[in-house]
């Protein structure tokens, strides 16, 4: 696969990005702003100053909202997507977590958002009311990364901090369904729902483990991918590929998943 790079003038320190309705929403941590880019031209068409230091950004399509985690302020800031120029998202609410907000995953089918909280808890937040519905124990001392979920299997995945370890919790009640400890440093999470494959990386750490996830939520090691030692991101696409950051070389590594789907 040929790799292509593209620069976007005017961005100071892009940290997290999400696409939504023809726009790219980009967090700039150094200026605590949310930049809005035209998804075709890459031109900056809007910018909003956030209420706290940002970490991750996600897009709620059903509500045309942008959710930005602000862990230092123990909250998620919620902004309304602009419908016309100037495309400056407007603050509409906070979802106060009471302790951290590491990563966001939006499950609009259940009207729920998931975020890693302090004390090894996974926070369950109502997308519509912004209230914390529950705090589920993961059995981890602390949590790291972006939670992942599988609505069909009824599972949400949390990552332990300190060393690579994933915990599967049941969406019905937050009870533990499965757990797997990998190798390397703090947990980086990626998941391909169509394959039923979870990818567990430790940063730092070389091998990325490919895990089959059963309908019950238990894990089976399928194989490994040899990634770069340092890299703080991983993501699975819908084409059967895994993308992993190589921080030392400033590039993305692409791996094709050769393993059969897990039923």
If you had to describe this structure to a student in words, what would you say it looks like?
The chain has strands at 14-20, 23-28, 33-38, 44-49, 57-60, 65-70, 75-80, 90-96, 102-107, 112-116, 121-126, 132-137, 148-150, 155-159, 165-170, 176-181, 186-192, 197-203, 207-213, 219-226, 234-236, 241-246, 251-256. The protein is an all-beta fold and 263 residues long. A 4-stranded antiparallel beta sheet has the order 1-2-3-4, with no helix packed on it. The protein starts with 13 loop residues before the first strand and ends in a 7-residue tail after the last strand.
Summarize the structure.
The chain has 263 residues and is an all-beta fold. It is built from no helices and 23 strands. The mean pLDDT is 94.
Ordered list of secondary-structure elements with their pairings:
Elements (H helix, E strand, L loop, with lengths): L13 E7 L2 E6 L4 E6 L5 E6 L7 E4 L4 E6 L4 E6 L9 E7 L5 E6 L4 E5 L4 E6 L5 E6 L10 E3 L4 E5 L5 E6 L5 E6 L4 E7 L4 E7 L3 E7 L5 E8 L7 E3 L4 E6 L4 E6 L7
Antiparallel strand pairs: 1-2, 2-3, 3-4, 5-6, 6-7, 7-8, 9-10, 10-11, 11-12, 13-14, 14-15, 15-16, 17-18, 18-19, 19-20, 21-22, 22-23
Could you list some keywords that capture this structure?
single chain, 263 residues, mainly beta, 4-stranded antiparallel sheet, 51% strand
Number of beta strands: 23
Strand content: over 45%
Q: Biggest sheet, open or closed, and with what strands and sense?
A: 4 strands, antiparallel
What is the ordering of alpha helices and beta strands? EEEEEEEEEEEEEEEEEEEEEEE
The stretches of 5 or more residues where confidence is low (pLDDT under 50) are none
Shape, per Cα inertia axes: globular
* Distance separating the two termini: 29 Å
């Amino acid at each position: 696969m040929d790799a292509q790079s593209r620069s976007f003038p005017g961005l100071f320190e892009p940290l997290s990005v999400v696409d939504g309705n023809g726009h790219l929403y980009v967090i700039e941590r150094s200026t605590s702003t949310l930049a809005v880019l035209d998804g075709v031209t890459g031109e900056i068409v809007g910018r909003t100053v956030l209420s706290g230091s940002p970490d991750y950004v996600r897009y709620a399509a059903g509500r045309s909202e942008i959710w930005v985690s602000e862990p230092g302020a123990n909250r998620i800031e919620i902004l309304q997507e602009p419908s016309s120029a100037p495309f400056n998202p407007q603050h509409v609410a906070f979802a106060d977590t009471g302790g951290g907000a590491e990563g966001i995953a939006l499950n609009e089918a259940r009207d729920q958002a998931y975020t890693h909280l302090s004390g090894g808890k996974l926070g369950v937040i109502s997308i519509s009311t912004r209230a914390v519905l529950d705090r589920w124990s993961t059995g981890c001392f602390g949590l790291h990364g972006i939670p992942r979920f599988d609505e069909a299997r009824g599972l949400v995945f949390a990552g332990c901090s300190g060393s690579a370890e994933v915990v599967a919790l049941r969406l019905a009640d937050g009870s533990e369904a499965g757990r797997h400890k990998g190798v390397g440093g703090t947990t980086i999470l990626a998941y391909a729902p169509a394959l039923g494959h979870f990818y567990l990386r430790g940063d730092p750490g070389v091998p990325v483990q490919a895990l089959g996830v059963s309908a019950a939520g238990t894990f089976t090691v399928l194989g490994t991918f040899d990634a770069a030692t340092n890299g703080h991101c991983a993501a699975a696409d819908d084409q059967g590929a895994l993308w992993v950051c190589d921080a030392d070389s400033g590039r993305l590594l692409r791996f094709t998943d050769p393993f059969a789907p897990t039923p």
